[in-house]
Design a protein that fits this description.
Strand content: 15-25%
Number of strands: 13
Number of domains: 2
Structural class: alpha/beta
Strand order of the largest sheet: 3-2-1-4-5-6-7
CATH architecture of the largest domain: 3-Layer(aba) Sandwich
CATH topology of the largest domain: Rossmann fold
Radius of gyration: 21 Å
Mean pLDDT: 91
Low-confidence stretches: 61-73, 378-384
CATH class of the largest domain: Alpha Beta
Length: 384
């Protein structure tokens, strides 16, 4: 059974890390994987893991000027490129990792099952409804995404939706010591660190993290704060400048660290004593799972994905509405009670290992692939 995975993003965001880990592990579940992705970090990491990779043009949406025409041109070229790759590798299934990747894959023979992996709760409704008509299977990464799709898609499509949670490779989070992580990223060797892992995108609510940090600092000036992530596509320079101004205005500049050169959370999470995740509309929360499997206690906004992952008070703490001052209070309480923090951390790791590993994902995907192939009576490729 051969599956062609398609993505049009070259950088490593959460969706691409999920693709990378799944594609590397699927062969052990009886699935041969081929990938079509743009050249760049994702392409290189897939190649290094032994996956056969074909290059495609990267696609980043632009709303103005020449960028708009460039985006349109790339989207028009992408289907023919994906078609040629599919014609070469002859997959049994094509698995698109995003809506743009799905749109680029729709011209493949209708005899080939086409899977659309949905990782968002913000999709252009008309485009999503049209795309869903061609999907043989729609994968939602959480119950929150499933509920969103039920709201926007035709009732005739809903039977094609399956929920498959994201999964983490726990082996990546066992090799880096606290001291080594702090030294590598220039963080203080001693003292507590409260961190956040999220690319610099406004809906992740880094401003709420800074507000919480200021309150924590007021009562515990020994605490340092770390934000891990960058502006992946250089779209938010003005907003980032506003965040930096917030840090300065709060008087926590000497305690605040921006880490923009870390492309793997496993390399830095062991440096943290706590992680805050204030995003209120998180479809899943991969960073939450990563922190938990790294035995870092997590305080997260009670919404969508994190509410699925965390049992509040047992394997982490959920804060209604992501109120930053309440998050600060919870963080201060854990910093003052290391025994409780350790208990939450141990329970958090156990929960991820029991429900959210990459092998769980691969088992479900492989089973679903086999069902799709069994339901396909014929398969073929149109020759040019």
């Amino acid at each position: 059974m051969r599956v062609l995975w398609v993505d049009l993003v070259s950088e490593l965001g959460g969706a691409q890390y999920s693709l990378l880990e799944v594609c590397a592990r699927l062969p052990s579940h009886g699935v041969e994987v081929v990938a079509a992705v743009p050249q760049g970090p994702l392409f290189d990491r897939l190649s290094a893991s032994g996956v056969a990779v074909f290059p495609v043009s990267p696609l980043r949406a632009s709303r103005r000027g020449r960028g708009l025409f460039s985006t349109a041109a790339k989207l028009m070229r992408a289907p023919s490129t994906i078609y040629r790759i599919a014609h070469t590798v002859k997959p049994d299934i094509v698995h698109a990792n995003s809506l743009p990747a799905f749109l680029a894959s729709r011209t493949i023979s209708s005899n080939i099952p086409l899977v659309w992996h949905v990782r968002d709760v913000r999709l252009p409704t008309v485009v999503a409804r049209d795309a869903a008509k061609r999907a043989s299977r729609i994968i939602a990464v959480s119950g929150a995404v499933d509920e969103y799709l039920v709201e926007i898609l035709s009732p005739r499509i809903l039977g094609r939706i399956r929920v498959v949670h994201n999964g983490i490779d726990p082996e990546r989070f066992t090799a880096v010591s606290r001291a080594a992580a702090r030294q590598r990223f220039g963080l203080p060797a001693e003292g507590p660190i409260v961190g956040m892992v999220a690319h610099l995108i406004p809906w992740k609510r880094h401003d709420a993290f800074i507000t919480a940090a200021a309150e924590i600092h007021r009562q515990r000036p020994d605490v340092h704060f770390v934000v891990v992530g960058r502006d992946l596509f250089n779209e938010h320079a003005r907003w980032i400048a506003q965040l930096e101004e917030m840090v300065a205005a709060a008087g926590i500049g000497d305690q605040f660290h921006w880490v923009r050169d870390c492309d793997d959370a496993a390399q830095i999470l062991s440096a943290f004593d706590l992680m805050l995740h204030p995003a209120k509309d998180e479809p899943f929360g991969r960073a939450v799972c990563e922190a938990m499997v790294a035995s870092v206690p997590v305080i997260a906004a009670e919404s969508a994905g994190p509410a699925l992952i965390i049992e509040s008070g047992v394997s982490g703490i959920l804060v209604r509405g992501g109120d930053p001052l309440r998050m600060a209070d919870e963080a201060l309480a854990l910093l003052d009670d290391p025994a409780r923090a350790a208990t939450l951390a141990a329970a958090g790791r156990a929960r991820v290992l029991s429900r959210f590993t990459v092998d769980h994902v691969c088992e479900q995907l492989a089973k679903g692939y086999r069902a799709l192939i069994a339901a396909t009576t014929t398969a073929g490729y149109d020759d040019d």
